Amino acid sequence: MASPLAYPKTKGTTVNRYNNRATYDVKTIHSIVNESSVLHVSFAPDAEDPFPAILPMIGTMGSFDYPSADLDEPLDCYLHGYVSSRIMRLATSSPQGLPVSIAATKVDGLVLALTPNANSYNYRSAILHGYASIVEKTEEKLWAMELITNSVVPDRWKNSRVPPDSAEMQSTKILRVKITAASGKVREGGPHDEAKDATREDVTGSTWIGVVPVVEKLCEPIPASQNKVGELPNYITDYVAEMNAKVEAYALNAARLP
Amino acid sequence: MASPLAYPKTKGTTVNRYNNRATYDVKTIHSIVNESSVLHVSFAPDAEDPFPAILPMIGTMGSFDYPSADLDEPLDCYLHGYVSSRIMRLATSSPQGLPVSIAATKVDGLVLALTPNANSYNYRSAILHGYASIVEKTEEKLWAMELITNSVVPDRWKNSRVPPDSAEMQSTKILRVKITAASGKVREGGPHDEAKDATREDVTGSTWIGVVPVVEKLCEPIPASQNKVGELPNYITDYVAEMNAKVEAYALNAARLP
């Protein structure tokens, strides 16, 4: 269900192509980010380099000031991942924060139509613009580390050795991105063919059309050789089962829509 | 197996963090691109906008001049997707091509260690830098459209209504990206904990460690309500089975490595 809040449209985030699929709804956009196992973060090139930087990173939406905030409320994006020294150096040296673009995309199905031009994906994608700063306050940093750890497997933080020691706190950096604008796109349903193909019996009689649903599946967990805990804990078993049921239900429902 | 060709290291593509996971091998990088259902393409911001553009697009590696070239040979990246008018306008107005960065990332497993700081993902990622130009020659454009269609489902092109008519040829644009540099990263194996945790029985006795393998699974295809072909064709059934077996074998093997 749509939330009351929407992100403002800016020149860079307004969807022009297939704008019937566009959304600026805060809850939808935050959900796409939180359900993506990887985000792609881009920032402007150096003066001598024409290519923008682009990095895969782990991240999640959250509010340190209002930790109980829901997905339909204003949230920051916290990032942790393959943080090159370059992004950290740039974020440190930008008093207003480093301008970054964040992309989250989930493929939910391969949509096969009568002709290649009408093929598509079922998908959910979001693009966020914001200013990235390094989290300096220890309390906020610890909170964000727990948030990000638990975004990968809920309750993992408290079920492993915490808190991080001082060496770990020093070597880890967390970025907080204040979001200024964002947009999303959602495509669901079966193929949409034009009448020029749908009315041709030679085409419809020979071309299978439909959707191959796609899900990111969590397989049966495999213990490390040095694992000493005999039984797989419930918080992992339950999460694997719940996530698989949730993403499959979404993809199958999206595929069955007209 | 590594190929003899490697991409040159440039300032923007040299891996500094976790550089033991780095690869510049042409075959590895091309494979990561071709096995990714979505690529993220970034290009520099407008003068008045600090945020780089970032778009999810469909693409694949290929060589129009040497169509039988293998993955370990020089290839271009052909892109088709949510092509905003902006990227097309910029590519058209850049005589040398528009500088773009392309990212491909596949998550293969959640790696759970004794402490959050040692958690990781098994993953394969690639970043490519190159110059994007619009494919103008009809012969190359048709070839690339077939290549991209068949990268989603092999043999789909010839099993649907082709060739595209003139309206479809006009409304579709394909970008060819000449790659100038690229790098990849591959992480596989179980968790690597430090001795400070691995020697503590209270930690090892209470914390399950291992890998939750992650796969992009293709589910049972769902026919569209208007589908007229009774039986699912073999080229689709076979592809779904082969892809699922391949990605699961990769993720499980990666999880079981030390």
From TrEMBL, chains A, B:
Coiled coil: none
Pfam families according to UniProt: Pyridox_ox_2 (PF12900)
Stored PANTHER family: 5-NITROIMIDAZOLE ANTIBIOTICS RESISTANCE PROTEIN, NIMA-FAMILY-RELATED PROTEIN-RELATED (PTHR34071), FLAVIN-NUCLEOTIDE-BINDING PROTEIN (PTHR34071:SF2)
Protein name (database record): Flavin-nucleotide-binding protein
Lineage: Eukaryota, Fungi, Dikarya, Ascomycota, Pezizomycotina
